[in-house]
């Protein structure tokens, strides 16, 4: 989209200057508020069920409020909706400040949030596409309250809420530019600048927290901006919902995930704890900066998806939402394995069968909630692949006739392919151990599902109006999508272990079958804290090659230099009967460097 030169000079440049001014003002005010908070004793102290273990001032929300409201009042035209946003931001800040200083009851705070949402909606900030005000008004209020609480919950690790808010505000700015909405663009740019200025002191190790006052202000402002951007001019409800949901997907996912986990484990959903997405990633081994940067990356990717969804066909937007939802469900299932609640039972423990009754496949699938989640994920993937196949085949767009054919045939496709998946035992496997044999089963299930779907369309409608090319594309997309989803857990296991700061670097001597199995065992076993940096082997033909991504550096003569270069603490000799000369060489290299060494076998399961 090409914007006129007048827009850039008259609107975009002043908005950029306003954003930079807000960043500078927030950066100047934050140290001042830190000093005031320390002198007044307004600090956050360590609590057993919270993540932080340091005493940190928590008046950062005041610096954010001044950094946001002052430039907005000076620069942004005070139209009706902007006035409502600013009033709401100020009231949200005061409500959060009261909670920071006096600890309001959860239900008192919720009532205040609802009233603030009503004030904002009364000024015209609402979902415009819904014609019935009796539906649009409560939905808009609930949206504002939801995002306020989402950022309140997301503010659980140094720099997480501020950085995520800065990214969300930046994407709101872009969408406002796309629609040439000067007021929203300037307001979003100012909010982005405020977050960036505050983040200078809030990133790890944080010198000050934003507190509930800052998280309430940030959440309310972003929720309102999300209802005032480009997408409000769309004529499709799906597009209206897609952009704000994608822009704010990370805090919304964290809120939904924590709520479900707490309720399923008998915990109160409105009480703080160390069970958030960020905490679970840190427990798995990532450092605080790594955890925050990973969630920044997720926010940026989802924001880019929101950019791509603008102007797309509704079916394309539906595919994006289904795929994003499926990925969140898979990641949520992976993170749910992390034990964070006291007396939590093993996630892999199966429920006891009723006495005297045989266990059927259907009963097993119903008892295991994970299996139901797998079925729902496949449901979304089958739908997405079928829609994508039509979009790829008909590049010029789907006519109303094609859309009618797609909607009519999709239930048949879903029933046939889900039945094939169940028949081939795809809901009896464990995704974490997805391997070559499972890929073959997946190939057979998807191929048979496509063949039977084609036969069903031929029998029911004689293929009138349907494209055989679509079914071929659909089979290829579904095979890739379902296979890709099933390797996500394995990929996350390996990726996190390779980057875990607590993991002990180790070397494996022996780049053969035993060494490969030892490496695989270390990666699969959640109890290990080893990070394999590479292999050594006396066979020169293996030098320079890689085993499951780990390099083979060279012969045993490279052991001493590698121990120093990578600060290796453990050496694992993966050989069935290692020669004594090799053992003596390893001992002479390891003992002066206080590195441990041992002979391991292919049956290694824990270290």
Walkthrough of the structure:
It is a single chain. The chain is mainly alpha-helical and 607 residues long. The protein has three domains: 5-334, no CATH class; 376-485, no CATH class; 503-600, 3-Layer(aba) Sandwich (Rossmann fold). The protein has helices at 5-40, 60-75, 80-102, 106-122, 133-154, 160-178, 182-202, 211-226, 237-247, 249-264, 277-284, 288-309, 314-335, 361-367, 369-393, 400-423, 436-461, 468-486, 488-499, 513-524, 559-565, 580-590, and strands at 43-44, 56-57, 504-509, 530-536, 546-547, 550-554, 570-574, 596-600. The protein has a six-stranded mixed sheet, with helices on both faces. Strands 1-2 form a two-stranded antiparallel ribbon. The longest helix is centred in the N-terminal third of the chain and has 36 residues, at 5-40. The protein starts with a helix and ends in a 7-residue tail after the last strand.
Task: Chart the SSEs and their pairings.
Elements: H1 5-40, E1 43-44, E2 56-57, H2 60-75, H3 80-102, H4 106-122, H5 133-154, H6 160-178, H7 182-202, H8 211-226, H9 237-247, H10 249-264, H11 277-284, H12 288-309, H13 314-335, H14 361-367, H15 369-393, H16 400-423, H17 436-461, H18 468-486, H19 488-499, E3 504-509, H20 513-524, E4 530-536, E5 546-547, E6 550-554, H21 559-565, E7 570-574, H22 580-590, E8 596-600
Parallel strand pairs: 3-4, 3-7, 4-6, 7-8
Antiparallel strand pairs: 1-2, 5-6
Helix pairs in contact: 1-2, 1-7, 2-3, 2-7, 2-8, 3-4, 3-8, 4-5, 5-8, 5-10, 6-7, 6-8, 6-12, 7-8, 9-12, 9-13, 11-12, 13-15, 15-16, 15-18, 16-17, 17-18
């Amino acid at each position: 989209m090409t914007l006129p030169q007048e827009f850039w000079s008259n609107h975009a440049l002043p908005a950029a200057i306003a954003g930079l001014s807000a960043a500078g003002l927030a950066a100047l005010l934050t140290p001042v508020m830190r000093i005031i908070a320390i002198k007044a004793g307004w600090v956050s102290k360590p609590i057993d069920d919270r993540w932080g273990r340091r005493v940190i001032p928590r008046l950062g929300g005041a610096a954010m409020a001044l950094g946001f409201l002052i430039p907005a009042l000076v620069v942004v035209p005070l139209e009706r909706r902007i006035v409502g946003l600013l009033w709401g931001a100020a009231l949200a800040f005061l409500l959060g400040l009261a909670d920071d200083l006096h600890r309001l009851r959860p239900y008192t705070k919720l009532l205040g949030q609802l009233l603030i949402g009503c004030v904002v909606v009364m000024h015209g900030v609402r979902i415009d596409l819904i014609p019935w005000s009796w539906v649009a008004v409560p939905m808009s209020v609930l949206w504002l309250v939801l995002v306020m609480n989402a950022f309140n919950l997301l503010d659980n690790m140094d720099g997480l809420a501020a950085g995520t808010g800065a990214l969300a505000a930046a994407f709101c700015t872009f969408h406002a530019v796309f629609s040439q909405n000067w007021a929203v663009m300037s307001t979003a740019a100012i909010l982005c600048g405020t977050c960036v200025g505050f983040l200078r002191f809030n990133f790890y190790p944080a010198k000050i927290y934003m507190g509930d006052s800052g998280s309430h202000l940030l959440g309310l402002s972003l929720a309102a901006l999300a209802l005032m951007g480009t997408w409000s001019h769309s004529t499709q409800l799906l597009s209206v919902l897609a952009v704000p949901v994608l822009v704010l997907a990370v805090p919304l996912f964290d809120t939904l995930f924590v709520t479900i986990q707490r309720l399923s484990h008998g915990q109160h959903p409105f009480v703080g704890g160390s069970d958030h997405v960020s905490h679970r990633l840190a427990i798995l081994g990532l450092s605080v900066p790594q955890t925050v940067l990973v969630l920044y990356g997720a926010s940026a990717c989802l924001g880019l998806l929101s950019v791509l969804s603008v102007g797309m066909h509704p079916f394309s937007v539906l595919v994006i939402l289904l795929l994003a939802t499926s990925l969140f469900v898979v990641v949520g299932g992976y993170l749910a394995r992390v034990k964070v609640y006291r007396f939590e039972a093993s996630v892999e423990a199966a429920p006891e069968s009723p006495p005297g009754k045989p266990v059927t496949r259907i009963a097993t699938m119903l008892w295991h909630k994970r299996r139901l989640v797998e079925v729902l994920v496949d449901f979304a993937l089958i739908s997405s692949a079928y829609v994508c196949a039509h979009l790829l085949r008909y590049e010029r767009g789907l006519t109303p006739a094609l859309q009618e054919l797609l909607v009519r045939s999709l239930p048949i496709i879903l029933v046939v392919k889900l039945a094939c998946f169940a028949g081939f035992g795809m809901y009896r496997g464990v995704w974490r151990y997805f391997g070559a044999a499972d890929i073959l089963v997946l190939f057979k299930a998807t191929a048979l599902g496509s063949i039977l779907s084609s036969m069903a369309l031929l029998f029911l409608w004689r293929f009138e109006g349907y494209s055989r090319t679509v079914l071929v594309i659909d089979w290829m997309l579904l095979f890739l999508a379902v296979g890709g989803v099933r390797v996500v857990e394995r990929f996350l296991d390996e990726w996190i272990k390779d980057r875990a700061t607590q993991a002990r670097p180790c070397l494996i001597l022996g780049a053969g079958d035993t060494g490969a199995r030892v490496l695989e065992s270390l990666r699969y076993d959640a109890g290990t804290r080893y990070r394999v940096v590479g292999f050594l082997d006396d066979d020169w033909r293996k030098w320079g090659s890689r085993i499951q991504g780990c390099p083979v550096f060279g012969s045993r003569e490279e052991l001493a230099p590698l121990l120093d270069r990578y600060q290796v603490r453990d050496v694992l000799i993966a050989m069935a009967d290692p020669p004594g000369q090799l053992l003596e060489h390893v001992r002479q290299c390891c003992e002066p460097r206080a590195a441990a060494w041992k002979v391991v076998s292919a049956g290694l399961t824990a270290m």
